[in-house]
Design goal:
Blueprint lengths: L2 H13 L2 H8 L3 H15 L4 E4 L2 E4 L1 H29 L4 E6 L1 H6 L1 H11 L4 E6 L2 H9 L5 E5 L6 E16 L18 E5 L4 H12 L6 E6 L5 H6 L5 E4 L12 E4 L6 E10 L6 H19 L2
Parallel strand pairs: 3-4, 3-5, 7-8
Antiparallel strand pairs: 1-2, 5-11, 6-9, 6-10, 6-11
């Protein structure tokens, strides 16, 4: 059983198609079929069965897929660790960051990191937290900075508390009164897309109080757009309270304070359990553990 055959097997699992896997691997389909034959001969078991145009794993194939994923991760991590040690570099960080932290934490944190370790290199992915966690599990990311979620696959280190609250422009009609929760349904909203955790939490909170979901007139995939749109309209929204204390919107946005619609969460560092972390990754984690709260506040 060799590494090449395992990578070929992994590609077939990923694409559920011999043809597509062969195209991605830039090899012929017969060569790929021969590889799987070798594995099945060594294991004395069938790994795939055909269903229509797809190939699907047999029960033994499912076991092999889980083991194969771990084996290849360990091989890749070993190559990376040994390569970085041999080259005497501080390492590369594949960093995934939730949108709120790109605004209030990341610039200050990376500035300090590069002062401490100017040889560090980074690749940065900004996205939704659940997508970033999937990337962490697939070994596409080393570190994710996002709301922390407990799980046996992750190691989590909380670094800063955050609250998400209902927000309006300073000249919104509800900003000049003491509104009720029911009155929030009288206005349209600007909200993140429906699959984002904060949106789902807000809708569930309204449902728990016997209210229909907030009516989104504008849905956005970029949270960076939201404060400007809120400030220039009479739309309500649901944002980190941190936005209310940061120029240029600190004078134009206000919180509509409701205990029921205040989401408490922790931002933190998430890594894959037992995953390899380069010296650069460890340096960033130490910086965030020591200075994360101050950097988030802009101190």
């Amino acid at each position: 059983m060799n590494e090449r055959d395992l990578r070929y097997f992994s590609a077939i699992v990923r694409y559920s198609s011999m043809r597509r896997a062969a195209e991605r691997l830039h090899i012929s389909q017969p060569a790929l079929t021969k590889c799987i034959g070798r594995l099945e001969e060594q294991l004395h078991a069938r790994l795939f069965e055909r269903k229509g145009r797809q190939v699907v794993l047999t029960p033994i194939g499912e076991v092999m897929a889980r083991r194969c994923k771990l084996i290849l991760q360990h091989i890749d991590e070993a190559k990376r660790e040994i390569g970085e040690y041999a080259e005497g570099v501080q390492g590369h960080i594949r960093l995934g960051v939730a949108a709120t932290l790109t605004e209030f934490l990341l610039p200050n944190a990376l500035s300090e990191l590069l002062e401490q370790a100017p040889g560090v290199t980074l690749s940065l992915t900004v996205g939704m937290s659940d997508v970033l966690r999937e990337g962490l599990l697939r070994d596409e990311l080393d570190i994710v900075l996002s709301p922390v979620v407990a799980g046996e696959d992750f190691d989590c280190i909380p670094i800063v508390e955050d609250e998400v609250v209902v927000v309006a422009s300073r000249d919104h009609p509800l900003a000049r009164s003491v509104p009720t929760l029911e009155q929030l349904n009288d206005y349209q909203w600007i909200l993140p897309s429906g699959n984002m955790a904060t949106r789902r939490w807000l809708e569930q909170t309204f449902a728990d109080h016997g209210l229909p979901s907030p009516r989104a007139q504008i849905e956005v995939s970029s949270l960076a757009l939201m404060p400007r749109l809120i400030a220039s309209t009479h739309l309500l929204s649901f944002l980190s309270r941190r936005n209310l204390h940061s120029p240029p919107f600190s004078d134009s946005l206000v919180e509509l304070s409701f205990r029921e619609t205040t989401l408490h969460r922790h931002f933190g560092i998430m890594t894959r359990h037992d995953g390899y972390l380069s010296p650069a990754c460890l340096s960033l984690m130490t910086l965030l553990k020591d200075r994360g709260k101050q950097l988030y506040r802009g101190d």
